[in-house]
Design a protein that fits this description.
Elements: H1 4-12, H2 18-27, H3 36-76, H4 110-121, E1 124-127, E2 136-139, H5 142-150, H6 162-171, H7 184-198, H8 201-205, H9 208-225, H10 236-253, H11 269-288, H12 300-329, H13 332-336, H14 342-350, H15 353-366, H16 369-383, H17 386-399, H18 409-413, H19 416-428, E3 434-438, E4 443-445, E5 448-450, E6 455-459, H20 509-526, E7 527-530, E8 538-540, E9 544-546, E10 553-556
Bound molecules: protoporphyrin IX containing FE (HEM).
Protoporphyrin IX containing FE binds near residues 158, 362, 431, 499 and 506.
InterPro entries: CYP11_CYP27_families, Cyt_P450, Cyt_P450_CS, Cyt_P450_E_grp-I, Cyt_P450_sf
GO molecular function: heme binding; iron ion binding; monooxygenase activity; oxidoreductase activity, acting on paired donors, with incorporation or reduction of molecular oxygen
Pfam families: p450
């Protein structure tokens, strides 16, 4: 249930129903009515309640008109069963397509599977008949993606990560289901609390200095790791992952793991965390996308997944408890002198350590391979586009006259070309394939009936290199994201949504931006980066993966 302080802002955003507001008012303890801050909330709540009632009446009239049109569309649309896709065999369903040695999609990268569905079956295609798995409807046109996202309702549903949800609901029953895997009102309560902590610019600001420190360690590590030809070692991606994990652990758990120290013991707890991040991601791809019997029998991948999740949960609980103890033992006067960290803010706001643990797990799972791969793709794109690299360095030389000083927020804000390069990298080498939603209501999509709750994968794979949406699509042109680049700009707002859309969009975007901008600015201010090898091969599981070692040649600039 929403508290009054959460229900009022939600009502102002049009996301709290009359029932939610009334319940929040009724549940507010009588004693709070006498506090000044609460009196204003209560007055606001009563005003909102009247507005919500009025809005419901107007909406009901409009809905009646819309319902009539919608039901005609629905009746005229082709049935769900007619959506094209591979025809399932009896018993085997469509699983054989993914099986070695002859399965059509065996070993194929997920991006190509999505694209081939688009080419073979059209912009609305069905992949059904996978054992133990609901159908996926694969959608690949921006106007259809827009339709899905604009009808997602106040509690957008994104199911599909069954393994994660299963873990929280069955293995860790005494913990909360994490933000990314919760739905409905449970999701909204969690998200409202987290938004107030993670989406506020002043809460990110305090991390500029520590994130700069971690990024400096990364730059020092690059300098120390190069061989005599200035080439980085085969395991360079591990170092990027360490940077990503070190940064996000500082935000999620108020902890420095010291991962970028050259002498780190490979058997240490910190080292094992990197392994666990990769294992969870890889297992989720196998458990939640590929055909798997984990819901019927305990498969080796399932066991690996559970082991890594247990390790994460234990680590997160340990650090959250330490933060609780620190908060309790620090004198109030001292606490008032400094801003609260993200973790402290979550603990103080929710008074629920389980919520802080669940959020920390989400941040570790969603915030390592994403930013890490984002940095790797950026290094690769700039290394293979020397003209753009030079332009970036001109900006960095102007904004950062002294490389020995920590970066400031003002300097970061001044790096417009850097941000344009990040966006262009995300377009030309997207790290995720798209997004997912369960239909918020019965929909007619591309002429087909899609019943409420159906899982839809919105894939961007065929959009980013499509001239229809991006002029000169095959070229790497950061200018398209800058004033003056109008002729090159994206032609449809739903063709490029790397952080998602609406109230359920990525909650870590501010931190992802801060981390990536800082480390990339420092790296390219210090070094010129070259790629002197054949084009690197990549594949897609849930996320882009480099198949070749990231052997960049890195030369000092200063
Ligand atoms: C380059 C980096 C990143 C990219 C491209 C990215 C992208 C996304 C996308 C596309 C979504 C789904 C949004 C939607 O459904 O509309 C998402 C959700 C999410 N992201 Fe990120 N993300 C990144 C980094 C991060 C970081 C650093 C964190 C943690 C601090 C994070 C935490 C989350 C969480 C918790 C959700 C689930 C939100 C919810 O369900 O309410 N992400 N992200």
């Amino acid at each position: 249930m929403l508290r009054l302080t959460q229900a009022v802002p939600a009502a102002i955003r049009g996301q709290a129903s009359e029932g939610v507001l009334s319940r929040a008012l009724q549940q507010t303890p009588l004693r709070l009515f006498y506090y000044h801050s609460f009196t204003s909330h209560i007055t606001a709540a009563q005003v909102c309640l009247s507005a919500v009632r009025l809005r419901s009446t107007v909406t009901a009239v409009n809905e009646d008109v819309r319902e009539d049109t919608a039901s005609t569309d629905w009746e005229q649309a082709r049935p769900y069963s007619a959506i094209p896709g591979p025809t399932p065999l009896p018993i085997l369903g469509n699983a054989h397509h993914f099986m070695p040695p002859f399965g059509k999609y065996n070993g194929i990268n997920l991006a190509d599977v999505m694209k081939s569905f688009n080419v073979e079956y059209g912009p609305v295609a069905k992949l059904g008949g996978l054992p133990g798995r609901a159908d996926f409807i694969i959608i690949s046109e921006p106007h259809l993606i827009e339709q899905v996202l604009r009808t997602e309702g106040v509690w957008p549903m994104r199911k599909g990560a069954d393994s994660l949800e299963y873990y929280f609901r069955n293995i860790r029953k005494n913990y909360r289901v994490s933000l990314a895997s919760s739905q409905g009102q449970e999701w909204q309560e969690f998200r409202t609390a987290v938004n107030q902590v993670m989406m506020k610019p002043q809460n990110t600001k305090q991390y500029v200095e520590p994130i700069d420190r971690v990024s400096q360690e990364f730059v020092d590590r690059i300098r120390a790791m190069r061989d005599g030809n200035n080439e980085l070692p085969d395991q360079f991606f591990d170092e990027i992952s360490k940077w990503a994990l070190e940064s996000i652990t500082y935000v999620a758990l108020d902890t420095k793991l010291g991962l970028l120290r050259g002498d780190l013991d490979p058997n240490s707890e910190s080292y094992k965390m990197i392994d666990a991040v990769h294992t969870v991601f890889e297992s989720m791809y196998k458990l939640d996308f590929l055909p798997s019997l984990w819901k019927q029998v305990s498969t080796p991948t399932y066991r690996k997944f559970i082991k890594s999740m247990n390790f994460f949960t234990e680590m997160s609980t340990k650090y959250v408890n330490m933060a609780m103890e620190r908060l309790q033992s620090t004198p109030r006067s001292e606490l008032e002198d400094r801003p609260y960290s993200v973790l402290e803010n979550l603990l103080l706001r929710t008074e629920d350590p389980n919520m802080a643990v669940a959020m920390a797990l989400d941040m570790l799972l969603a915030g390592v391979d994403t930013t890490g791969t984002g940095v790797a793709t950026f290094l690769y794109q700039l290394a293979t586009h020397p003209e753009q690299q030079q332009k970036l360095q001109e900006e960095l030389d102007r904004v950062i006259p002294d490389i020995n000083k920590p970066l400031t927020k003002e300097q970061l804000e001044d790096m417009r070309y850097l941000r344009a390069c990040i966006k262009e990298t995300m377009r030309t080498m997207p790290i995720i394939l798209g997004n997912a939603r369960n239909a918020g209501k019965d929909l007619v999509l591309g002429g087909y009936q899609i019943p409420e709750g159906t899982l839809m994968m919105m894939t961007y794979r065929g959009l980013f290199d499509n001239e229809k949406y991006f002029p000169r699509a095959k070229e790497f042109l950061p200018e398209r994201w800058l004033p003056g680049g109008e002729a090159l700009k994206c032609k449809h707002p739903f063709a490029f949504l790397p952080f998602g859309f609406g109230v359920r969009k990525c909650v870590g975007k501010r931190f992802a931006d801060l981390e990536m901008e800082t480390v990339l600015a420092k790296t390219f201010r210090n070094f010129s980066v070259e790629w002197n090898r054949p084009p690197a091969n990549t594949t897609f599981h849930f996320i882009l993966k480099f198949l070749d070692p990231l052997k960049f040649t890195v030369k000092d600039r200063v």
